[in-house]
Amino acid sequence: MSAFRSSLASLCLGLCLSLSVTLPARADEDAVVGYETGDTQMNMAIGQARATYETVFIPAVRARSGSRFMLKTGIDTPANGLEHIWIAPISISAQKITGTLMNEPVHFKAHAGDEITFAPNQISDWSFRREGKLHGNYTTRVMLPDIPAEQAAKLRAQLAPLP
Predict the structure, then answer these.
(1) Domain limits of the chain?
(2) 97 burial type by CB count under 10 A (0-12 exposed, 13-18 middle, 19+ buried)
(3) Rounded distance between C-alpha atoms, residue 34 and residue 27, angstroms
(4) pLDDT in tens, 37-50
(5) Residue 81's pLDDT is what?
(6) Contact of 2 with 13, CB cutoff 8 Å
(7) Which of 58, 55, 82, 80 lies closest to 69, judged by CA?
(8) Backbone phi, psi, residue 143, to 5°
(9) What is the pLDDT at residue 30?
(10) What is the C-alpha to C-alpha distance for residues 110 and 55, in angstroms, rounded to an integer?
């Protein structure tokens, strides 16, 4: 069975998730949390993020009604899983998204700051900041019970209600 791991900065399916989008943490300090590929809550969160990507995230980007726009994408790993990792988008089209890795990958060869390109159907989450609150972060919300209590409390205080 493949593990679903997530560093609050990258998400591993066998899934890995990552959290650095929300807290100013160094990539090497990001917690990595594992989830099974079939984890119902995590898969629902990814589904919600994908369902609201075109209706909430893209309009916010176009209107520039926020800051720190980020996407989380699932990248294939050598162990036949996925590592979900945050990227800062550079260009977005209907066919492909190009962005820079926000975190140091754990399960595939690349480095924070490297540019990657992926298809929109690989998006697993989105995030942006508006009026001091973090919008999106569906996978992050699922991860809250699995991260240190102090970090989870700080995140909960920053999260905006979901659309």
Answers:
(1) 3-158
(2) buried
(3) 17
(4) 889 999 999 999 99
(5) 85
(6) yes
(7) 58
(8) -75, -15
(9) 56
(10) 31
